[in-house]
Design a protein that fits this description.
Blueprint (H helix, E strand, L loop, with lengths): L1 E3 L5 E4 L4 H6 L28 H9 L7 H13 L2 H5 L7 H15 L9 H15 L2 H10 L17 H9 L18 E7 L1 H6 L1 E12 L15 E2 L8 E8 L2 E8 L8 E2 L11 E12 L8 E4 L15 E7 L6 E3 L2 E9 H6 L1 E7 L2 E7 L8 E4 L16 E8 L6 H23 L1
Parallel strand pairs: 1-9, 3-11, 13-17
Antiparallel strand pairs: 2-10, 4-9, 5-8, 6-7, 10-11, 12-13, 14-15, 16-17
Helix pairs in contact: 5-6, 6-8
This protein binds zinc ion (ZN) (2 copies).
One zinc ion binds next to loops.
Protein name: J domain-containing protein
Family: Belongs to the DnaJ family.
Keywords: Chaperone, Chloroplast, Metal-binding, Plastid, Repeat, Transit peptide, Zinc, Zinc-finger
């Protein structure tokens, strides 16, 4: 199945990667990257469940690697302050007092807002206090037995929700790490190479390329579940998508919030599809017809939207990046939008002037060389160069460098004539100096 990609869908990015430009042996090249098009960095989407920085925060704050004096200080704070004083409310505060105290404090200490050291720890303390005091049952246990009341019960210390979930549920904010369910993951971008001839790159071409990529699994329709089976709540995390592990050390109880490995944070498990093994995607080859615009060069990148790997669980597909490589022409060299060519003429033609036939990308063309042309002169054949990318009919020039050939050997007749010419010149000079 071939899908036509309209030209407007492709974005050309102009910088040549170093690797490709080093392959280019064109000694005339003046500018390596003069194509004035969008410079696009390739991005590869990651599908981690926690953004890496957040994972780092979550783990570091409980990490036993933190030096002991640090931990001790933190524990003293914890031990000295009960949940009521953490929230700054009295023991008989109403539910709405507790809620408004939490909202005020949590907003000040949320790590997205407050970058001060210890803010995150404070935020967690606040959240923990709120979680207990906002729940009538937990609050009454806490009032009677303190934190010890939760030990060994179903509401162990490890039973606390993710403080960020608690926060976002109250503030209705899109915090990066929200509920773990329905973890859609975007598909990865793909990259492939396309080799063009010199003329194809200059004038543009339509090409069909075969791309091997991950597409939605046809057996399970992308769900990853074996057809006819139903997803059920993950027994490892109870549908939370996260597990909290507590470890008791002489310094106190430490908790780590981790993505549930059994369900990869989705909160659900299912019997995996036989075809794709639960990934929801299978490798398929697809023919994509690509309209390469005129004026591309080695290293240009075409971006074909949504033709990368399919997303997971409804995530957006990645993009396909096509990197152009151009086979050099034996005589015509490219310098951005100009084409460079060297023509050799005899010294006689240089003196008398001549017309030569020059190859161009449009075919052979006549070029008039004026009498008295100097070696190394560059003549401009205007608009015989490369069309400007995405600029309609504008074109660069062909620059013809004139190389004058001096014969290494002369026939007797030629020598006699040149000597005659030399004598003529001498006489002229003598006459001139006598005057
Ligand atoms: Zn499948
Ligand atoms: Zn799970």
């Amino acid at each position: 199945m071939a899908t036509a990609i309209p030209c407007g869908n492709t974005v050309v990015t102009g910088l040549r990667p170093r690797l490709l430009s080093s392959l280019n042996t064109n000694k005339w090249r003046i500018s390596q990257a003069r194509v004035s098009t969008e410079i696009g960095a390739l991005s590869f989407s990651s599908s981690s469940i926690f953004p890496p920085n957040l994972t780092h925060l979550l783990f570091n704050s409980w990490s036993p690697k933190i030096p002991c004096h640090h931990l001790a200080r933190r524990l003293i704070v914890k031990a000295a302050r009960d949940y009521y004083s953490i929230l700054g409310v009295s023991k008989n505060a109403s539910k709405s007092d507790i809620k408004s105290a939490y909202r005020k404090l949590a907003r000040n200490y949320h790590p997205d807002v407050n970058k001060e050291a210890g803010a995150e720890q404070k935020f967690k303390e606040i959240s923990e206090a709120y979680e207990v005091l906002s729940d009538d049952e937990k609050r009454s246990i806490y009032d009677r037995y303190g934190k010890d009341g939760f030990k060994g019960s179903t509401m162990d210390m490890g039973d606390f929700s993710n403080p960020f979930d608690l926060f976002s549920s109250l503030f209705d904010m899109d915090i990066r790490n929200r509920g773990a369910r329905n973890m859609a993951a975007d598909g990865e971008d793909l990259i492939c190479n396309l080799v063009l001839t010199f003329k194809e790159a200059v004038f543009g071409v339509e090409k069909e390329i075969d791309v091997s990529r991950l597409d939605n699994c046809t057996t399970c329709d992308g769900s990853g579940a074996k057809p006819g089976t139903k997803a059920y709540t993950c027994t490892t995390c109870g549908g939370q998508g996260q597990v909290v592990s507590s470890s008791r050390t002489p310094l106190g109880v430490f908790q780590q919030v981790m993505t549930c490995s059994a369900c990869s944070g989705t909160g659900e498990t299912f019997t995996p599809c036989n075809k794709c093994g639960g990934d929801g995607r299978e490798r398929k080859s697809k023919k994509i017809s690509l309209k390469v615009p005129a004026g591309v060069d080695s290293g240009s990148r075409l971006r074909v939207r949504s033709e990368g790997n399919a997303g997971k669980r409804g995530g957006a597909p990645g993009d396909l990046f096509v990197v152009i490589e151009v086979i050099p022409d034996p005589v015509l060299k490219r310098d951005d939008t100009n084409i460079l060519y060297t023509c050799k003429i005899s010294y006689i033609d240089a003196i008398l002037g001549t017309t030569v036939t020059v190859p161009t990308v449009d075919g052979s063309a006549d070029l008039k060389i004026p009498a008295g042309v100097q070696p190394g002169t560059t003549l401009v054949m205007s608009k015989k160069g490369v069309p400007l990318l995405n600029k309609g009919k504008m074109r660069g020039d062909q620059l013809v460098r004139v190389q004058v050939e001096i014969p290494r050997q002369l026939s007797d007749e030629e020598r006699r004539l040149v000597e005659e010419l030399a004598n003529l010149k001498k006489t002229k000079t003598l006459n001139g100096s006598r005057r």
